[in-house]
Design brief:
The protein is mostly beta strands. It is 2% helix and 51% strand.
Length: 171
Amino acid sequence: DMDAMANFYVIRPYPAGIDSQQWIFLSHAQTMWEESTLTININKDIEVNGNVKLTKKDKDKGTTLSGFGFKLKNTSTGEWVKRSENTISYVTSENSATIFTTGGKDGTFTVNGLKVGDYVAKEVSVGDNDGYLVPSGNNANTSFEIKAGETTPVTVTNTYQKGDFELEKVD
């Protein structure tokens, strides 16, 4: 009813939680002001997930590399990422985490639907790439941040291991 609403005025917004807003209304009745509270629930889709696109490259040549495996850890929660089909979940055991493998000519993989927060990509395998080694300790981890509604680009490099040898001819 428009006439009933004509006597209500929004004084100020007052936050009452993530899914609702509360406004204080004053109604005018003759010369007297009465204060009352109205709570309105607002349903709106809020993007709380983000994505990562990881690219693996040779440090010296800059070429992309396929077949390298990584596990993702949400360092904000201490949980590891697990993907079953297209569903992302989080597990406490690194052994239960999914190994995401770089592929194709661009040497990338993408994971969609990650919780917002700080992460590390831990390199765990080099696949069939002879001459490369899996980094150890903190050198295996590359830090990045997931932001709501964004795809975070991450580039991880690895150095091809060159070796020296000495050949001695014996007659």
